[in-house]
């Protein structure tokens, strides 16, 4: 068992990010057994869930003429327009059925505000609006984080970068993550995480 100041954060292991899902990540389902096993080592386990209303601004279908995976400019900065995914209450938004969700202390939903996306588990994409996770972890005395889940180069990486910026010691279990890899995003985010002092465990 690891010390009480360490937590495992499992990012967005949901049907829509697994093969057959609306925004499928190659091999997304393959990480589930390893994550379930890793949960047993931790006294604190947090799951995040991407959770969007149907009119969400990150969906290409809500921007007439825009193609999925194209880039747009939002008031808070550049934003990839995604295929419609993880719609509130849908099967696609549910956790992968094999994920051991019973083990979670907290399920944190993010991306529920129509006008703003939230890749990170800590801040929405304006990098200012908090999700409340930092306060929760501070209240529990947690200072060290291990991250796993989907997708490496979006929600995992942005969560890891925010966590490092907030002063947590961060390790990303790259072997328990899978990437979307859009136009070199995996290499870009690997470099940004390394530069931020995050340990990448392959
Ligand atoms: C994610 C794109 C859009 C993720 C969520 O979980 O990495 N990526 N929404
Ligand atoms: Zn999303």
Automatic annotation (TrEMBL):
GO terms for biological process: pyridine nucleotide biosynthetic process. Its EC number is 3.5.1.19. Keywords: Hydrolase, Metal-binding, Pyridine nucleotide biosynthesis. It comes from the Bacteria. GO terms for molecular function: metal ion binding; nicotinamidase activity. Residues 7-190 form the Isochorismatase-like domain. The keyword Oxidoreductase does not apply. Pathway: Cofactor biosynthesis; nicotinate biosynthesis; nicotinate from nicotinamide: step 1/1. The keyword rRNA-binding does not apply. Belongs to the isochorismatase family. This is Nicotinamidase.
């Amino acid at each position: 068992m690891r010390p009480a100041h360490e937590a495992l954060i499992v990012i967005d292991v949901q049907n829509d990010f697994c093969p057959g899902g609306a925004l499928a990540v190659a091999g997304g389902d393959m990480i589930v057994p390893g994550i379930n096993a890793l949960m047993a080592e931790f006294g604190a386990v947090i799951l995040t869930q991407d959770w969007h209303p149907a009119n969400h601004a990150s969906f290409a279908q809500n921007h007439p003429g825009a193609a999925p995976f194209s880039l747009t400019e939002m008031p808070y900065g550049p934003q990839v327009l995604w295929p419609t995914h993880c719609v509130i209450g849908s099967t696609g938004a549910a956790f992968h059925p094999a994920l051991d969700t019973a083990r979670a202390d907290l399920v944190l939903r993010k991306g529920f505000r129509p006008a703003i996306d939230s890749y990170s588990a800590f801040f929405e994409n304006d990098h200012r609006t908090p999700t409340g996770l930092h306060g929760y972890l501070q209240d529990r005395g947690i200072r060290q984080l291990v991250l796993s889940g989907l997708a490496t180069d979006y929600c995992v990486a942005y969560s890891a970068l925010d966590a490092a910026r907030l002063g947590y010691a961060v390790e990303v279990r790259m072997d328990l993550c899978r990437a979307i890899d859009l136009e070199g995003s995996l290499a870009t985010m690997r470099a940004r995480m390394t530069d931020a002092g995050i340990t990448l465990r392959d």
